[in-house]
Amino acid sequence: MDPKRRALLAAGAAAAATTAVPRVFALQPGSRGTGTFYDKSGVRIYYEEAGAGFPLLLLPGGGLNATIAFFTGNAPFNAIEEFKGEYRCITADLRNAPTGQSTGPVEVDRPWESYADDQIGLMDHLGIDRFMVMGFCIGGPFIWSLLKRAPNRIAGAVLAQPVGWRPEMRDPGYAGAFWKGWPAQITAKRPDIPLQTAEQFVKRMFETNADFVFTVTRDFVRTCQNPILVLPDDVPAHPYAVAMECAMLAPKAEVSVFPWKEPKERIPLAVRQIRSFLRAHQRA
Fold it and tell me: DSSP character for 102?
């Protein structure tokens, strides 16, 4: 690990910590944008908007059951409420999330690419060229996929508690294998999707040539020139080592304090750092 890079990352986190002040921020749902659907080639994506300003695409966590409800349920903080006062916040249910409203084909041969199609397609549908993106959990690999697909469109990216690959994920009993229940859940909701197809989709997505952040290689991260901010976690599905490796490899990466979710009094500091990052790179 480059000692200079380590020092810079540590200094940035320390500076943010010393300037933090307590504040009350929104954790409860408030006024939400009116939901609607975007349709294209057999795909129907449910999305919502809130606020105004520079576009900010928010990718919810929750594995293959990622929906807008994440932000008012299991999220460390409600990103929609936090940023809608300054940004045009856009978020959507993931295609074929069992508890969501977005639907479409199960593309076994291109699972990650199909989700990128939906995310880029939504921004195209809204007439948005350049935007910021923030993703939780599975949103981390989604962001790397977007950075590979459309680097010139993304002004900056925030990866919060991103998922990453661990060899022990191949064990069906592993606590971090958050996608294991999806095939049965989606086929129960969508009888038109065979269980075998859903299982093949998951195997291709998470187990075939799986490594690192699933969607890109370390060589890609080394050459990525987009600014990114990483907020690492340290649970089975969100490995600290992978998050920090991304932060060290990416030339324009920053990293938050760690841990940033516990105690909960640290969350406002993390939100404040995200806001500073977004403002800086929105201007750039």
Answer: -
Q: Are 248 and 1 in contact (CB under 8 A)?
A: yes
In angstroms, the CA 167 to CA 165 distance is: 7
- Residue with tokens 């040539």, as numbered in its chain: 209
Q: How far is CA 99 from CA 69, 105, 189, 263, in A?
A: 9, 16, 9, 30
> Per-residue pLDDT tens for 120-171?
999 999 999 999 999 999 999 999 999 999 999 999 999 999 999 988 877 7
Q: Over the stretch 187-222, which tens digit does the pLDDT of each residue have?
A: 999 999 999 999 999 999 998 888 999 999 999 999
CATH code for the structural domain at 3-283: 3.40.50.1820
The domain locations on the chain are: 3-283
The span from the CA of 229 to the CA of 209, in Å, is 26
Distance from C-alpha of 35 to C-alpha of 208, rounded to nearest angstrom: 35
Inform me whether the pLDDT recorded for 19 exceeds 80. no
Full-model pTM? 0.87
Burial class (CB in 10 A: 0-12, 13-18, 19+), 31: exposed
Beta strand 87-92 with 43-50 is antiparallel
Q: Coil, strand or helix: which one is 88?
A: strand
